[in-house]
Amino acid sequence: MNWEDVRYFLAIANAGTLSGAARQLDVDQATISRRLATLEAQLGTRLVNRLPRRAELTSLGQEVFEQALAIEDRMFSIKRLAMTAHSELRAKITLSAPPILARHFLAPHLLTLSQGLPQVQISVLSEPHFASLSRLEADLAMRLAPGVTDSDIVKKIGQMEFALYATMAYPNIATPEHWEFIGYTAHELSFDHKTWLYQIIGHRRVICEVADLSNQYEAACSGIGVAGLPCFLADSDPRLVKLQTTEPMLNLGIWLALHPDRRNDRRVRETTAAIIGLVEALGLE
Prior knowledge:
Elements: H1 3-15, H2 18-25, H3 29-43, E1 48-50, E2 55-57, H4 59-85, E3 92-97, H5 99-106, H6 110-116, E4 121-126, E5 140-143, E6 153-167, E7 181-184, H7 192-201, E8 206-210, H8 213-221, E9 227-230, H9 231-234, E10 240-242, E11 251-258, H10 266-281
Helix pairs in contact: 1-2, 1-3, 1-4, 2-3
């Protein structure tokens, strides 16, 4: 049995469609279908029912899926241990962060980080979802919530305060009851900032919706309305002014996560120290 065929099967099971698996693995759908057919031929049984809009696992396919997940976990464990053992030979560290931190905290200070890590190539993933450290999607992950993966080592390294901002030219700046807000698109799931923002908005108007905090920041700078923004970002922007309100403001922790297998990885430790140093230098500790 070829593990690559099993890996393609896992992608189908996770995505629920052959096309979704193809996107996940960055291959064409014909390759996905061929790999699945090869695996089923080797096992002499059908694992997936190919329906018009989805790929449905057979009862045996579900059992194989569970076994394959366990094998995959072991394979990733071996990779993590090998990476840690030879960390001095590796130059690249992948750091996952939500868009607001990736774009407005990390990107403007990559030179500073790089100077403190002369042997490391820093790769920043700007992602709204939590990267899987166990699956090596990233070496380190900055987060605005501790996360729910019990196996990750998560440390609070700072905090991010929020307030309401608009441009000085915003016409309703002196009349809070007429403030119009920049909100989230409807498909965004609830999380701390979104929950807080819509509690603040109440029955007032949402004048536009965008996908994430970075876009809310840009929209606020255009003068269209009021946004709930990180103080470290908005306070330093001359286009914006902090609005006075009696509403409770938000304070989110900044967390740094790594997998336990990587705790002795020299490059991971060096990068962790550099990020913590940057947080402290910017007054976010």
